[in-house]
C-alpha cells in the first residue's frame, strides 16, 4: 500500500471515528435533553378529562335564548357535529399535513424559520395543530426555545395517546377566536348568529382565518382585512383540494355580513332576580363556567310592555312637577352638541318613542312663547309650554350653594336660546316638552294561572341605575296595606255588611303630652258605614276602628300568614299602612288573597340542567303540577312542595269581592277601563310621598309603586289612583291580550243576599240603594232596615191614637 493511500485511509478513519463520536454525543445529548425536558412535563390527563369553562345559557319556555353567563363564551361541540367544511378550512389555514405528521412537522418548521430569517421578524409560525393543543392546554404562552422544545415533546406524546379526530375536537373547542368567543360553535354564534350546521363556506373560512390574529382579522373590527384573510383561506382550501374552484369563486364574492351581538332579552329587575337566585343556589363560579342550561318563564312581550308602562307613568307624573332650570350652552358649542346627538340617533325614527326622551336645544323663541328646538336631526315647533318653574326656595331646601342660587336668580323664568331640554315622543309621531324624571316607579306582576313571575321593572331607567325598587326599596304602603286588616276582620267574624264607625278620634300618648289625630282624605267623615264601604273608599278612621275591634295582637299574628318578610310593631297606625315593605313582599302577599288563600312563591326559574343534561333544579308553584311529586328527589325540594293554606277560601273570596268594589265604586274606579272583572286597592301615604296600586284578575296580579327615592312629596293630587293606577292599567291591558274574560269563582260556603247599601241589613221599605252581597253561609243579616223616622211608611205602620169616637157611640 502506498504511503499516500495509507495516509488517506488513516484520515478517513479518524473522520469516521469523529462522526461516530459526534453521533453518539448527539444521541446522548438528545437523550439527556429529552430526559431533562420531559422530566417535569404536565400529564396528559388535562386532555382526557377535558372539562373547559362553558357558557351557561338561559332560555324561556318557548326555547328562545334570552341570556348567557360566561367567563369564556364556549359551546362544547362533539367532533362529529362540527361540519367537515369548517374542519377542512382550519386544516388548510393552520396545518395542511395534520393527518400525516406525528405531531411536529420539521419541513414546516424549517420553512417558517427561513421565512422569519429573511423578514427579520416572525412572519410565519411552524407549529402544528397538535403543538397548539399542547401549548394551549398544558403550557404557557412564554416565547422561548425551552418552551418550544417542551411543546414538541408534548405534541409527540399527544399523538401517541389520542386520535387525530380527538386532537381536532380539543383544538376546535378550545381556541380563542375573538369577540369573546372560545371554540368554533361560539364564534359561529357571536359573529354570524348561526349554529355550526348553517355556516356557509365563506363563513367557515372567515372563522378559520382568525386564530392567526383574532384582533386583526375579526370581521366586526377590520372587515377589509377579514375579507382578505378569508379569501386567502379559501385559496388554501382550493390548493389543498378541500374546495373546488367554483365554490371558492362564489364564496369569495359573498359579502362579509356580521351579526350584531344581541342585547339580552332577559332584562331589568327580572334579570337581576334570576341572577340572584341562580347565584344563591349554585354560586357565581359554577354559573359562569359550568355550562348550565336554564329555563325561565320569561315573556319578552309582557316584560317590555311593563317597562313601557313604567316609563310612561313616570314621564306623565313628571309633567305635573315643577320644571327645573335647564343647562344653557353658549352658541359656539352648539355644533358639537348637535353633531353628537345626530350621530346617536342615526338609523332611528324621526320622532322618539313615546317612552323615550332625547336632548334638544332651544334655538328660537317666538313672542307668543312658542319654541323652536333642534335635536340634531330635526327642527321641532313647540307651542308655549304650560309648565310651572321650580321656585328658588325649593333649590334652597335641597341644599343649593349660594353661588348656584345666585346663578339661578339671574335667569329669566322662561326658556332662552341655548337651553338644553328634553323631548318625549307622542302617539302621533310628534314630540312634547319633557325632562328627566325626578319620580321613580316600579312594577311586579305574577301570572296567577301559571304561578310564575310575569314581569319585574325596577325603575324608570333600571339598566343605568341598577337599583331594584321591586326587591330593595322599603316604602310605606299606606292604604294598600288595609286589605290584610279587613281580611283579619272577616276571619274574626265580621262580614262585608258589618257596620263600622267612620268618625273622628284622638289618641293621647301615654309617655308625653303629644296626641295623634288620624284623618281621612280631604278630612271628610261618613259616620256608620258597612265594612265594604270603609275599604272601597279607604276610610282611615273606620280602619282604625276595625283594628281596635280585631285587636292588635291578633292582627300581628295574622300578618305572619303572609310572605311580608318582616315583623311589625304593635301600633294602631298599622291600620293605615304606616310601616315599610317592599313591592315584592306586598305583591307576593296579595297573591294569597288572590288565589283562594293559598301561599306559594312565584317561580322565576323553572329548570336547571348541567352540561351533561342532568336536572339540578326544577320548580313548580303550588299544586299546579300533577306529576312533579312522582320523583322522590324532586318532591323533597321546597320548590316542588304544594302550596300552603294560609286563608280559608271563603275569606279569600270575600276580601277579593270587596276589593272588586274598590274598582267598581271606590277609589280605584280608573281601573274599570280594563273592562274585565278585577279587584284592587289604592295606597297613598302622608303628603303623597308614596303612591300604590295593587290589583288582580283571576289571571294576573300586578303591583305598582311610584315615588321619589328620597321620600319627598310628589304633589297634592298624586294619589295612588293618579300616580300608580295608570301604569297598572296600561300594563294589565297588555298582559291580558288574548286572554278570555273570566270572573272570580266563589268557593263552596258562599251565599248571596241583597242588602241595604247603607245599613248592611236586609232592604226595608225605605231602602234607596240595595246591593247583592256575598256572605259566608249562615252569616247574612236577618233583620230588615227600619223605616225612616217621619216617613210615610213609618206613619202608615205606626199604631193610631184612641180618639174616643167609638166610646161616644158615633
* Helix content bin: 25-40%
Mean pLDDT: 88
- Biggest pleated sheet: 5 strands, mixed
Low-confidence sequence ranges: 628-636, 798-810
CATH superfamily of the domain at 442-600 and 643-735: DD-peptidase/beta-lactamase superfamily
The number of helical elements comes to: 29
Shape annotation: elongated
According to DSSP, the number of beta strands is 25
Q: DSSP strand (E) fraction?
A: 5-15%
* Structure class: alpha+beta
The largest beta-sheet arranges its strands as: 2-1-5-18-19
Oligomer: single chain
CATH topology title of the domain at 442-600 and 643-735: Beta-lactamase
* CATH class (first level) name of the domain at 442-600 and 643-735: Alpha Beta
Give an account of the 3D structure:
It is a single chain. With 810 residues, the chain is of the alpha+beta class. Among the domains are: 45-50 and 77-179 and 208-250, Biosynthetic peptidoglycan transglycosylase-like (Penicillin binding protein transpeptidase fold); 322-437, OB fold (Dihydrolipoamide Acetyltransferase, E2P), CATH 2.40.50; 442-600 and 643-735, 3-Layer(aba) Sandwich (Beta-lactamase); 750-795, no CATH class. It is built from 29 helices and 25 strands. It has a five-stranded mixed beta sheet with strand order 2-1-5-18-19. A five-stranded antiparallel beta sheet has the order 8-7-6-9-10, with helices on one face. The radius of gyration is 39 Å and the shape is elongated. The termini are far apart. Residues 628-636 and 798-810 have low confidence and may be disordered.
